[in-house]
């Protein structure tokens, strides 16, 4: 007969046998159950290592679980260890495989730590796996072991999250927040806002808030100070954080300035040009009349970015249009020459 028990039942039973212990031991006993449900056999040494306790502690924990009616037992021999009856499961069978995979692909550790969410002694995904039917566990573990989502960048910048905890508290409690905010031009101002949500974009945190009847985005790292007020506000009934953020991104991109440039590039340089999108946000190539050259259309945010990018290729790239860009590149190149000639 298949035995499925809700987690509340397990907690109550373990708590009953652990009245003199503390919450850490109760959590450890549950973690042992999760690990045994996910693996066929686990040695005492392995459990002790994963849970950061001694072998003797694990043996006492096994006695406690057995007394609580949890069907754990030892298999002796060279490949022996602890196991649990296969029929003993908590139930998440109503979830579809793709839904479980979505839960397995959890956010980065850094973002969780920023929010004050620290992992326990075992990965939370072990607990998720322990609640699945045996037929789904193998496929889900394969997904876990072979898919990893890294939300960071190659060179992580250190974002100041000093006031993230205060901002998060204000968001969750619907309390007004007074912040001193530094804009990109270093202008500093104070304002009282109604914080509605937090969004992590790569490794950067943004606060979405209402100010003077308008929704605004604030980069958390630019908050110089933050004070939670006692005053509570009412959230707009028509506000949906994800929908707002996606529309905000689209609107932001549409407002970005564009600077179009036509160039000829030595064909061997094309892979290097398309390797990074640091400056370019649009690139289109077609064969030039000269066999060793390729005609390329580029789109930058502004002229300065175009100058810096093109100078980086030296004599491997030649500007066709606009003509005023050619003049500016010449002046920049001559300035570099004068700099080195002066030493």
From TrEMBL:
SMART domains associated with the record: HTH_DEOR
What is one Pfam family matched by this protein? WCX
Enumerate the UniProt keywords alphabetically.
Transcription, Transcription regulation
Q: Origin, by domain of life?
A: Bacteria
One annotated GO molecular function is: DNA-binding transcription factor activity
Q: Please name the Gene3D superfamilies in this protein's record.
A: Winged helix-like DNA-binding domain superfamily/Winged helix DNA-binding domain
HTH deoR-type domain residues are: 25-84
Which InterPro entries is this protein grouped with?
CBASS_pafABC_assoc_protein, DeoR_HTH, HTH_11, PafC-like, WCX_dom, WH-like_DNA-bd_sf, WH_DNA-bd_sf, WYL_dom
Cite the PANTHER family for this sequence: PROTEIN PAFC, PTHR34580
Q: What is this protein called?
A: Helix-turn-helix transcriptional regulator
The record lists the organism as: Alkalihalophilus sp. As8PL
The organism's lineage? Bacteria, Bacillati, Bacillota, Bacilli, Bacillales
